[in-house]
Specification:
Shape: globular
Radius of gyration: 24 Å
Largest sheet: 6 strands, antiparallel
Structural class: alpha+beta
Strand content: 15-25%
Distance between the termini: 22 Å
Length: 453
C-alpha cells in the first residue's frame, strides 16, 4: 500500500470478483503486457487492455466506490479487465504510476463525482425518487387483497401440515418431492414466496439422508409457527410482526427506508467483513456483511443481479466505510440498505472478536427474537481449526481448550477449509463467519490482511 493507505491488497481485489472464472481470467491480465496508458490518482485507476479486436478495451475503476467502467461487452461487474487492472495496480506501483486521467477516463470520473455532489447537496428526502403511489387508496386496497391471499395460502398450508402429521411422516417419503412442489406453487399463487421457499425445504428434507424424519418434523414446526404468526399478526408486537411479514415474503422498498416518513439511518464506520456471491439459475445474489466500529452492530447488505441487471455494489473485505445504513424492520434487524457515504473507503484493522461461548450466546439471543434464523454473523478471535476426534469433520477450538465449535458440513471438502488450515498453521486466527444450527461457516480469515474463504 502507499503511505495514504489507498493501495489495495491482492486479496481485496480478488474478493470483488463475481465468480471463480473471473478471478482466474483477471489473474491472467495482471501483467503489464496487454496494458497501455495505465495510471492512477488518489481515487481512480485506469488503463487500456489489448483484446481480440482492433481497439483496446478502455477500463477505469473508481476505487472510492468502488465502481467500474469498461468498454468490453462483458455483463459481469467487475469484468476480468477491471480485475486485471486492479491486480496490476495492487501488485507493483511501478507498473501503474500516478498521473492525470486520460480524457475518456476523466469524463466518466467527473460525471460520477458530479452526481455524488448533487446527491450530497440535495435537501433531505430528495436523494431518491419518491415511492409514493399515484393513488394511495388503490395501493391500500391492493395491499389488503394481498394480505387476504397470503392468509388463505397460510390456512391451506396448515391443512396440508395437519394431513401430513395425521397420516404419518413416512407418507412424505412415499409421496416424493412432487407433492411439495405443487404446494409451493400454490404458495407462489398466494403471493407468499417466503412460504413457498420453506415448503420446498420440506421436500428436500425427505431426501437429506439419515434422521430425515427429525429434520422434517423440525421444519414442519417452524412452518407451522410462521403460519400461525401471520394468521394472528395483528396480535404480535410491531417488531415481531415485521419479522413475520418479511419471512412470508412481504418486502419494504429500500428507498422508503432511506427517505420515507419513518426513515432512520445509523451512521458509523462500517468494516466490511465478507462478500459472498451465489448463483441460482439466472439470478446472482451478493451478500456483504458489515460491522459498525462504534455501535458494534452487524449488518447484511443484499443485492441481486441478472443478465441485464448488474449487481449494484462491490466492497472488498477489510475496507472501512464512513456511511449511513438503514435497517429493514424486524425483531432482530440484520439486513440493511446502504445510504450516503461521508468519506472514501479505506483499509481497516483486524476486527476484534469473541470466543466460542459468546458466539453461541449471540446466536441464541438472535434466535430468541427470530426463531426462523438459520445463523447469525460473528467474529471469532484466537480460534484454531483442528480435525474432530472422530475424524468426521473439523472444529474451531478456543486457545484455552475449553470450548470448540464444529464447522458447518457444507464447507467440508472445499478448498476454503484447507486454505483456513494452511493460514492458521496450527496457530490461533481471527475468523468471521455465520454461527448456526449446522455449526460455523467461515467466510473470511485475517492473515493479517483479510482472505476470503
Amino acid at each position: 500500500m502507499n503511505p495514504q493507505g489507498e493501495r489495495w491488497t491482492t486479496d481485496q481485489v480478488l474478493a470483488l470478483a463475481p465468480d471463480e472464472a473471473s478471478r482466474r481470467a483477471g489473474g491472467k491480465l495482471a501483467a503489464p503486457g496487454p496494458w497501455s496508458e495505465t495510471g492512477a490518482d488518489g481515487g481512480a485507476v485506469w488503463g487500456q487492455c489489448k483484446g481480440s479486436g482492433k481497439k483496446p478495451y478502455q477500463t477505469v475503476v473508481d476505487i472510492k466506490g468502488p465502481a467500474f467502467k469498461c468498454s468490453c461487452p462483458s455483463r459481469k461487474f467487475p469484468c476480468k479487465h477491471a480485475l486485471g487492472l486492479l491486480l496490476l495496480w495492487a501488485g507493483d506501483d511501478r507498473e501503474v504510476t500516478a498521473g492525470e486521467p486520460a480524457q475518456w477516463a476523466g469524463e466518466w470520473l467527473a460525471g460520477r463525482r458530479e452526481r455524488a455532489e448533487r446527491s450530497a447537496n440535495a435537501p433531505s428526502g430528495a436523494g431518491a425518487p419518491s415511492r409514493a403511489p399515484a393513488d394511495p387508496e388503490a395501493a391500500r386496497r391492493r395491499a389488503e387483497r394481498r394480505m387476504q391471499r397470503i392468509g388463505a395460502g397460510a390456512t391451506e398450508l396448515e391443512q396440508r401440515l395437519e394431513d401430513l402429521l395425521r397420516s404419518g411422516l413416512a407418507s412424505a417419503e412415499r409421496a416424493g418431492y412432487g407433492s411439495w412442489d405443487e404446494t409451493a406453487a400454490r404458495m407462489v399463487d398466494a403471493q407468499a414466496p417466503g412460504l413457498a421457499s420453506r415448503v420446498r425445504e420440506l421436500g428436500s428434507a425427505v431426501a437429506s439422508g439419515p434422521d430425515w424424519p427429525a429434520r422434517l418434523l423440525e421444519e414442519c414446526a417452524l412452518l407451522h409457527l410462521l403460519d400461525q404468526g401471520f394468521l394472528g399478526i395483528e396480535r404480535l408486537p410491531a417488531p415481531l410482526a415485521a419479522t413475520v411479514r418479511s419471512r412470508v415474503g412481504l418486502t419494504t422498498e429500500a428507498a422508503d427506508l432511506l427517505t420515507g416518513p419513518e426513515a432512520a439511518t445509523v451512521r458509523d464506520r462500517w468494516l466490511v467483513l465478507a462478500q459472498q456471491d451465489s448463483e441460482d439459475g439466472k439470478l446472482t445474489t451478493r451478500r456483504i456483511f458489515l460491522r459498525g466500529e462504534r455501535t458494534g452492530r452487524m449488518a447484511l447488505h443484499l443485492s441481486f443481479g441478472g443478465a441485464n441487471r448488474p449487481l449494484d455494489v462491490a466492497l472488498a473485505p477489510g475496507l472501512v466505510l464512513d456511511a449511513d445504513l438503514a435497517y429493514y424492520p424486524g425483531a432482530r434487524p440484520l439486513r440493511a440498505v446502504l445510504g450516503g457515504r461521508h468519506a472514501p473507503a479505506a483499509p481497516g484493522p483486524v476486527p476484534p472478536g469473541c470466543g466460542i461461548d459468546a458466539a453461541l450466546a449471540a446466536y441464541g439471543d438472535a434466535l430468541r427474537d427470530d426463531p426462523w434464523l438459520d445463523s447469525w454473523p460473528v467474529v471469532l478471535a484466537d480460534v484454531t481449526p483442528i480435525p474432530s476426534r472422530d475424524g468426521a469433520g473439523w472444529q474451531l477450538a478456543d486457545t484455552d481448550g475449553e470450548s470448540a465449535l464444529p464447522l458447518d458440513p457444507r464447507c467440508l471438502g472445499r478448498t476454503s477449509l484447507w486454505q483456513l488450515a494452511a493460514i492458521s498453521g496450527g496457530a490461533p486466527v481471527t475468523v468471521f463467519g455465520e454461527c448456526g444450527h449446522r455449526g460455523f461457516l467461515p467466510l473470511t480469515v485475517w492473515d493479517p490482511a483479510p482472505v476470503s474463504l
